[in-house]
Structures are given as C-alpha cells and as structure tokens.
Amino acid sequence: MLRAAASAAAAGALVAGCDPHRDEDSGTVGREPSPSGAGQASPAPAHAARPPTRAPGLPVQIEHGPRGGHAVALTFHGRGDPKLATALLGEAERAGAKVTVLAVGDWLDEQPAMARRILDGGHELGNHTMHHRNICALPAAEAYAEISRCADRLRALTGSIGSWFRPSQTRRATDLVTGLARRAGYPHVLSYDVDSLDANDPGAPAVQRTVLESARPGSVVSLHLGHAGTVAALPPILDGLRRRGLRAVTTTELVT
Ligand SMILES: [Zn+2]
Questions:
Q1: Is residue 185 included in any domain, yes or no?
Q2: Residue 174 maps to which CATH number?
Q3: What does the pLDDT profile of the chain (256 residues) look like in tens digits?
C-alpha cells in the first residue's frame, strides 16, 4: 500500500504543478493520515528548523524580495521521487546554493526522512498544504485543514511548522486563504515572480532558459522537486546566476 501510494504520488508529480492550469494528482492517493501526529513529541533536530519568517515592510503575500540586492530564492514544490529530490539537493550543495522546499504533507508522510535531509543541507523548509488540492476553491474549513495538517506534520518531524506557507495549485492566495494561513501561524504567503514551467517537463535547456531570462535581483523562482529535467537544469541555472552576480539563498535570507 505504501509503495503503491508512493508510486502514484511520484507519477502524479509529473503532471501536478503549482498553478491552477495543471491537474491535481493526489485525490487518488487516498491514505488519510492519523490526526494523532500533531501530538507526538518532536525529535531534537540536529539543524534547528526555523519558525515562520516575518519580513517587516513586505506585503502579507510575497512575490519577490529586494530588487537592489544580489540574491534570488529558488523555491521548490516538495513532492515526488526522493532520489530525484536528493539529487537536486546535492547539486545545490555542490554549488554552494541554498534552496527553499515547500513540502506537501502527504509526501512527508511517505518520505519523512526528507524533512531532515532538507534541513541538514542548510536549506529552508515550508508548508505546501497536506494534499496539494486546489486550495483556493475549497470551503474555509477544508482549506484550513489542508494548511494545519501539513503544519502538524512539519512540527512533528522538525519542531517547527516551517518558515513559509505556499498555497497549492495557485500562484496567489485568495484573501480567505491568506487569512487562514495567518491563523495557522504563517505571517506571510509565499508567491513567486518567476515560473520556471518545469512541471511540464519541457527539457532541461528550456527550464534553464526560462529561469535565466526572467530572474533578476530579488526574484522568487518557482521550481519542482521530482523532475529529472529540473535536476539537470540546476547546475547551469546556478552557473548563469553566478555570472550575473546573483546568489541563490534561502527565502528568509532573501527577504530579511
Ligand atoms: Zn505545488
């Protein structure tokens, strides 16, 4: 059952992007997690997870950081084959880059070791809802549950609900979802200003071109774990950014 669910999630990740035009994949995964996870004692983290980030002076919904600096944030939809996720993190670390992973809660249930792996690489971890449903189309109670259940998973695994919340299947949150995220403990909603379109699997050169043509100082770039083309595109993206004097840093470092 677990293996089947993981396979379904990995296959689904090939088509499930963050924007509203891509299909949702997780409705068929169907393993409803126990609500008891929130009450478990948190393990003592080797790398402390950061609490939700507060960025004074920035809007509640953040699309980018300061344009006058020399940094960008590469932010990843956190789901899919853990081998590809681990390979992606390794490529970032070889280049001295930090990334932000917005993890889907059901992925954390299937791959709990990934939370620690992400933090141990010095990267940042956040909440990308429990099941990656179309959160802005859900009734308030269901949307809140999607946020709070993923927060519970993150807290159980790392001791923190994560630094950021990013809504699922949408670039921007509605006012309702923004309010629900705040109620769950996230002062900001993390949007983005550059869409790599990598979830469509256009090939590594296209992902590289799209990112490097659009990224500028302060950019928050949307990317996805679980896609081989994204893993292959990361080294040339980081090289291209470096040539332009831009460093890839955590989202918190970008905006604070
Ligand atoms: Zn997503």
A1: yes
A2: 3.20.20.370
A3: 444 444 444 444 434 456 654 444 433 333 333 444 444 444 444 677 899 999 999 999 999 999 999 999 999 999 999 999 999 999 999 999 999 999 999 999 999 999 999 999 999 999 999 999 999 999 999 999 999 999 999 999 999 999 999 999 999 999 999 999 999 999 999 999 999 999 999 999 999 999 999 999 999 999 999 999 999 999 999 999 999 999 999 999 999 9
Which residue range forms the structural domain that includes residue 175?
A: 2-14+59-255
* Number of neighbours of residue 139 by Cβ within 10 angstroms: 9
The CA 199 to ligand 1 mean position distance, Å, reads 9
Question: What is the 24 CA–ligand 1 centroid distance (Å)?
Answer: 9
- Ligand 1 center to 104 CA (angstroms): 8
Backbone φ and ψ of 254, nearest 5°: -65, -40
Split into its structural domains, the chain has a count of: 1
The closest alpha carbon to 6, from 110, 150, 131, belongs to 110
Q: Is residue 40 part of a domain?
A: no
Helix (H) or strand (E) holding 141: helix 140-158
